[in-house]
Write a structure and sequence with these properties.
- The protein is an alpha+beta fold.
- It folds into three domains: about 170 residues, no CATH class; about 50 residues, SH3 type barrels (Roll); about 90 residues, Alpha-Beta Plaits (2-Layer Sandwich), CATH 3.30.70.
- It is built from 13 helices and nine strands.
- The strands form two sheets. It has a five-stranded antiparallel beta sheet.
- A hairpin with a 4-residue loop joins strand 8 and strand 9.
- Helix 2 runs antiparallel to helix 4, helix 4 packs antiparallel against helix 5 and helix 10 crosses helix 11.
- It is elongated and about 130 Å long.
- The N and C termini lie far apart (about 145 Å).
């Protein structure tokens, strides 16, 4: 049919086939750019939503798919030389491999970028992760294409194998920190702004989670840099999760003989008065509580006043103010805060050893 059309137009078949192929490719390119622009606008309008994510995935697909359709249609419709058909088949295969590997890579990259937009402090980790995803899928795609084109990669694999072992040994700590950073990104035991404490003793606000290390700002306004591999293996106490509110306990000791119920009443009144006065950081809910805990001490009755503060750093000011109020109120109520005392009972022989030898007359009497 196309040959008859070429004769009717008085065109050379080769020239006619070239024009048909060029027309199909141009139409594919035009449609691809139009659809790309449409999907791009849709992704911008629906930014940070599932619809925007879908449009972002579809944004780059029309152009390669339409080019693939144009080339395949050309091979099916046109009578081409065997060598041209063989080259076209290989080109189509390469495009198919590119599309197959590009789509999952695009999904992972969009996920990482969206995570980076939600947590700006994690951008330093998501950026190298995006580069690694691109490089990994690109290498896999190139390897498959070259293998199907008959290019032997045995020597390349041998060289890469030896080189990768050397690189892995040289960058062992760096790679450990990098993958630990990816773990922190995926599992999210900590996040920028959290106040954490490690089992090794370091503590502070998380300032930045980088690809190699995590920075903590201490209460003294110093910076502690913790390698991600150390953070990934540490036992972490996060004082910000599941919520910033936290409980604070203040131990109070009174002398034996004091009425425990009176002490409980006074401590609760002190806490409620502090809340009524608007003590900064002290929360009314949950309500304060008092208990005879840990209980009967060696020389005192030991009580615990439990209150809640808005966040970790509020506990220091709240504890200080409540202790001042407790001392003032106990003085007014006549409640004694005892000093530690010890009573020693000595038998006669021990008492003589303590006193030492007496006067000569006493030694003779004895």
């Amino acid at each position: 049919m196309l040959q008859d059309l070429a004769r009717a137009l008085h065109l050379n078949p080769k020239l006619f086939y070239t024009l048909v192929l060029a027309t199909l490719v141009i139409v594919a390119l035009v449609l691809g750019f139009i659809l790309n622009h449409v999907f791009h606008r849709g992704a911008e309008k629906l930014r940070d939503s599932w619809g925007g994510l879908l449009f972002s995935l579809l944004e780059s697909l029309p152009l390669p798919l339409l080019l693939l359709a144009a080339l395949y249609s050309s091979l099916e419709l046109l009578t081409l030389p065997h060598q041209v058909e063989k080259a076209g088949s290989k080109l189509i295969f390469a495009l198919v491999v590119i599309v197959v590997f590009y789509f999952p890579a695009k999904v992972l990259i969009l996920f990482l970028r969206r995570l980076g937009r939600k947590e700006p402090g994690l951008e330093s980790v998501t950026q190298p992760a995006v580069f690694i995803v691109r490089a990994l899928f690109a290498v896999l795609g190139i390897v498959i294409v070259l293998e199907n084109l008959g290019v032997s990669l045995t020597a390349v694999w041998t060289t890469l194998g030896v080189g990768s072992v050397a690189v892995a040994l040289a960058l062992q700590e760096t790679l450990s920190n990098f993958f630990a950073g990816l773990y922190l990104l995926a599992d999210r035991p900590v996040a920028p702004g959290n106040y954490i404490k490690l089992d090794s003793g370091q503590e502070g606000f998380v300032v930045r989670i980088g690809w190699r290390s995590t920075s903590l700002r201490t209460l003294a306004n110093n910076t502690v840099v913790v390698p991600n591999s150390t953070l990934g293996k540490a036992v972490i106490t996060n004082f910000t999760l599941p919520e910033p509110r936290m409980g604070v306990s203040i131990q109070v000791s009174v002398a034996y003989g004091t009425d425990p119920r009176q002490v409980e009443r006074v401590l609760l009144e002190i806490a409620h008065d502090a809340m009524h006065d608007g003590l900064e950081g002290l929360l009314a809910v949950p309500a304060p509580g008092v208990g005879l805990l840990p209980g009967l001490g060696a020389s005192s009755l030991d009580f615990t006043l439990s209150v809640n503060v808005a966040q970790f750093t509020d506990q220091f000011f709240v504890q200080s103010e409540l202790r001042k109020r407790i001392v003032e109120r106990f003085r007014k109520e006549g409640i004694e805060i005892p000093l530690p005392t010890r009573t020693l009972l000595l038998d006669k022989s021990a008492w003589k050893e303590v006193r030492g030898p007496g006067p000569k007359s006493e030694r003779q009497d004895s």
